[in-house]
Write a structure and sequence with these properties.
This protein is mainly α. It contains 2 helices and no strands. Keywords: Coiled coil.
Length: 96
Amino acid sequence: MDFGVGCFAGKLSYHIDYNDKLQEAVIMEKRVSKLEADIDDIKTDMAVMKTDIAVIKSNYATKSDLHQAINQQTKWIVAGIMSTAGLTLALARWLF
């Protein structure tokens, strides 16, 4: 009669299933703790990135800043060309 063996096999199968689930739970706990640590790193990196972006935004040149710089540069170029032309004409008149 194999009544004892069949019953033992059922209990063994239950213990194996329980041990597998326990091992899976331990592995899952390790994975979750690693993910939590990674999320902490990501939060730190995001805080640093927010600070960097704030610095970059504070140093942006606006359209009006660009227009002012271009106007000022244009004035200096025109003044330089006029000065060079005037000096060239004065030098030519003095020499000839």
